[in-house]
Amino acid sequence: MIVDRPLINPSAAALAELGGVMTGRRRPYHMPGYEGPLSIKSMVRGCGRWRTGDGVFLVEPGQLLILNEGQRYSFTIDAEAEIETFCPFFAPRLVREAIRARGPLIRLLDAPDDIDAAPPTFVERLRPESPRIGRGLAALRAALDGDEAGDRLLDLLDAVLAESLAERAEIAALPAVRKATRDELYRRVHRARDFIHASLDAPLSLAQLARVAAMSTYHFHRAFRAIVGETPGRYVTERRLLAARRLLATTGRSVTDVCLDVGFSSLGTFSSAYRRRFGVAPSRDNSQA
């Protein structure tokens, strides 16, 4: 089977109907609003900021954001340095065909054009790039100008649908009686988690994060640890330290500047935490040291 090559940087109307890949190298940029098909937001280099009605998502290499069909969002690049985006969009008809293909074979043979399957609904959250989706993105990017690009897009769609099943299983395992309660709990915790990623340069408190999740402080703390696997405080510290290490290695900023950039108010506290986490002083990882 020869699959049509995906469109590259098509018009908004063509993208909404036919899907494709939006990719490019840009400096400061803002797209005020777009409502499109199921899509993956990923960065090859640099950082991009997507905003939906549910919050702000700061996407960096190694992370991704999956936005559902029909979700309206804006996109902003703040950095002066050149960045590179890579965002596949899946045509609504293709998504429904892929979902329907997971049903009984006899139905596919008797009614090949019946595509009444509902699209997947993801919890829109910042997520680590899974190995399968990571391989799919890399393969599509490598094949983008070739005859196998359509095949790689289908492979990536399969990986996205598998991610949806894995997320459903993760939510189903939460200790709540009603499915709707589990779904809502998962969304609220990840809303606060994404707020952390977008706010590492600012003071963060447990009470503030609980308010973002619209939960009591105690309930939020328990739910966050159950869903994310560590306490909110530990998660914030780890994200700040990882961000600091990346900045020290790549930007040439001073240790003091990086300390403040990632939300530490005390250089001594930052240096001690950094040494405990990585086994060296932050000055050892400074690219300009």
Overview of this protein structure:
The chain is of the alpha+beta class. It has three domains: 161 residues, Jelly Rolls, CATH 2.60.120; 51 residues; 52 residues, Arc Repressor Mutant, subunit A (Orthogonal Bundle). The chain is 48% helix and 18% strand. The chain has twelve helices and nine strands. A five-stranded antiparallel beta sheet has the order 1-8-3-6-9. The protein has a four-stranded antiparallel beta sheet with strand order 2-7-4-5. Strand 4 and strand 5 form a beta hairpin. The longest helix has 24 residues.
CATH-scheme architecture of the largest domain: Sandwich
The whole-number mean of residue pLDDT values reads 88
Order of helices and strands, N to C?
A: HEEEEEEEEHHEHHHHHHHHH
Strand line-up of the largest beta sheet: 1-8-3-6-9
The CATH homologous superfamily of the largest domain corresponds to Jelly Rolls
